[in-house]
Write a structure and sequence with these properties.
Helix content is 33%, strand content 25%. The protein is α+β, with helices and mostly antiparallel strands and 433 residues long. The protein is globular, with a radius of gyration of 21 Å. The protein starts with a strand and ends in a 7-residue tail after the last helix.
Length: 433
């Protein structure tokens, strides 16, 4: 089997700080088997919806040779029209070492030039393994991840960057690291992960008993909890990529989430960024020197915008950015490989985004007498507009033949993971683990 070498140089912005160049600089990345085409190969992991299929579609349209990969197992999913036959790897959360070895093998066997992680677990596990993977990783290194994605560290990073952040306390097995914010508060895990998919990742608590129960549930599951002041105001999201003069940004206003009041955004629209939001985002990514894809959340409180979550990866709503003309996956990979042309940026347009399973779930809740003030008919009408109205989009598309199977698989995996956590919590010796 032929072995080929990419010479590399150090650059700012990505975890291992390398990119391909024409002249050797003393460091080489050895890859097995050159690409079958003249275009670089990009590994997208996972190829699961939502960000995965959009990334596969974006990069394929840009001329890259795209390799999708997803968790192994019967009915594991990860298929879409953009990636009908993904490669398989062990569960990143259950078997991280085997997962990393599988990624290394894919890089060698497929001649991969860049890895684009598309989920929180993959980003977190690869963060401190960049140097051993044999390809450029378009995601943060361990230091960048810790300073912005660890919610206990984000407050300090934001303060140093001059960005407002809600009052927070971290609670672990040894107790809280400071005074609790006043009630009502929000309780959420210190570090996000896919094993929480399908559950409320943030809970609003209004009494000390509710707060203590929510914190105990996370700590008993082996997670530190963040208790944060509850902010009641307009919600904004941002997507960004690049640094310095090549920093690019898009803002969204969120109108609804699901589950209502505690879940991810399910109805939002691209908008002109409110004052300071673009600059606050730029300050945060420049504070850690990160040029890759970023998605982050702000809440408006009075005359302030406060950042409360940062994810250094493609956001779930990346399809809206792509549809608007801001092709985030392509730009991120182009920058990482030294192929980006800043002058190629085109005009963007307004996109209204409807998360299909979220708004359908809200409609079902209303039919059962639960949820907010919106009628089930109004919610179903929103879904219909997402499918057919100009300037609207429904994600994921029900026209994708893999859609139903993917949704069902994710729901079954959520149930299985929840059962596994309960078993672990109740097993002998788990109290001190």
């Amino acid at each position: 089997m032929e072995i080929w070498v990419l010479a590399t140089e150090r650059v700012a912005g990505f975890g291992d700080g390398t990119r391909t160049v024409s002249e050797p600089t003393g460091k080489a990345v050895h890859l097995a088997r050159p690409p079958a085409t003249g275009q670089p190969a990009v590994l997208v992991a996972p190829s699961d919806f939502r960000a995965g299929p959009w990334a596969c579609r974006s990069l394929s349209a840009a001329g890259y040779r795209v390799i999708g990969a997803h968790t192994e197992g019967r009915g594991a999913g990860g298929r879409s029209l953009a990636c009908p036959r993904p490669l398989r790897y062990p569960s990143p959360s259950d078997e991280p070492e085997r997962f990393v070895e599988a990624i290394k093998a894919m890089v060698r066997d497929e001649g991969v030039a860049a890895i684009l992680p598309a989920s929180e677990d993959v980003v977190r596990i690869l963060a401190d393994r960049h140097d051993e993977l044999g390809a450029i990783v378009v995601s943060p290194d361990a230091g960048q991840y810790r300073r912005l994605c660890d919610k206990a560290e984000l407050g300090a990073t934001a303060a140093a960057a001059g960005v407002a952040h809600p009052v927070s306390a971290t609670v672990g097995p040894g107790g809280a690291d400071g005074p609790m914010p006043p009630l009502p508060s929000v309780v959420k895990p210190r570090v996000s992960g896919e094993e929480l998919h399908g559950a409320a990742v943030a809970l609003t608590v209004r009494t000390p008993a509710e707060r203590d129960a929510a914190v105990a549930a996370l700590v008993d599951a082996g997670r530190d909890a963040i208790v944060q002041e509850l902010l009641d105001g307009r919600r904004w999201f941002g997507h960004s990529v690049g640094l310095g003069d090549d920093f690019r940004f898009m803002a969204f206003e969120a109108f609804a989430d699901y589950p209502r009041g505690s879940g991810p955004a399910s109805f939002l629209r691209t908008v002109e960024a409110p004052a300071g939001m673009r600059e606050d985002t730029r300050r945060l990514v420049e504070a850690v020197g990160y040029a890759g894809p970023c998605s982050l959340s702000f809440i408006e409180s009075g005359d302030r915008l406060l950042v409360h979550d940062v994810n250094l990866r493609l956001g779930a709503t990346v399809g809206a950015s792509i549809r608007s003309g801001f092709d985030l996956p392509r730009i991120a990979v182009d920058i990482a490989l030294g192929r980006h042309d800043p002058s190629a940026a085109g005009e963007t347009r307004t996109i209204t985004y409807v998360r299909l399973d979220g708004e359908l779930g809200a409609a079902v809740d209303r039919m059962r007498g639960r949820g907010g003030d919106e009628s089930a008919g109004a919610l179903l009408g929103r879904v219909a507009r997402g499918l057919a109205a100009p300037g609207w989009m429904l994600d994921p598309s029900p026209l994708d033949p893999y859609f139903v199977g993917t949704l069902a698989t994710r729901r079954l995996l959520s149930v299985a993971r929840a059962g596994r956590r309960r078993l672990r919590a109740g097993s002998p010796g788990s109290a001190g683990a």
